[in-house]
Prior knowledge:
Elements: H1 6-26, H2 32-53, H3 58-61, H4 68-74, H5 79-85, H6 89-107, E1 124-125, E2 131-132, H7 140-148, H8 150-164, H9 166-172
Antiparallel strand pairs: 1-2
Amino acid sequence: MISSSLAEAFLAQAQADYSTFELVREKAENPPSQWLHLLQMSVEKTGKAYLAAEGKGFDELKQSHLGFSKVLKQLPRNPAVQSLLEMPRAAVRSHVNALRPLASEVERLVPGKDNSGRNAEYPWKDPQGKFVVPAAHDFSELSNQLVRQQRGRQLLRLLRILLKEAKCHAAFGILRPLDRQN
C-alpha cells in the first residue's frame, strides 16, 4: 500500500504490527520479548498515526517513540471514543487514566533515547555490567498484566478500537478506513 496520508500510512503499519503481535502471542513457545516488541511497535505507530492526523509532521514524529501517551490524553474529549467505549466523558477519562501507566510501560520497551534499560528488542546491560538478552529475560510481570489482568485486556481492547474502528479514525481525522487489499 502506498498512501499520500502520513496518518493512514502509520495506521496501516500499526495494524500489521498488531495482527502479527496477535499471531506471535498465541504460540506459547515464543518468548514474551517477541510479542512485546510487536505490541510496542503497534502502540508507537498508533500514536504516530493519530498525532499525524492532528498535523504533526514526519520529521517530528521520527524523533520519539512515545506518542501513544499523548493520544491517550485526548481520548476522553472525543465523542466517538465515548460512544465506542459506551461510557460518558468522565468515565472515559477515569478509564484511560487507569490504563496510562501500563501503556507507558509498553511504550518504554523501545531501546534508544527513550529508554536505556530493559527493552524487548536489543540486549542491554544490567547493573553489574552484564548483557541481558531480551529473548531470555523474564518479562512475566508485564506479560501477565497484559494477558491475564483486566487492565491489560482493557488496554488491548482500547488499542484495537484505535486501530480498527473507522468511526474512530474519522473522528480524529484519519479520514478513510484502510483497504488492506492495496
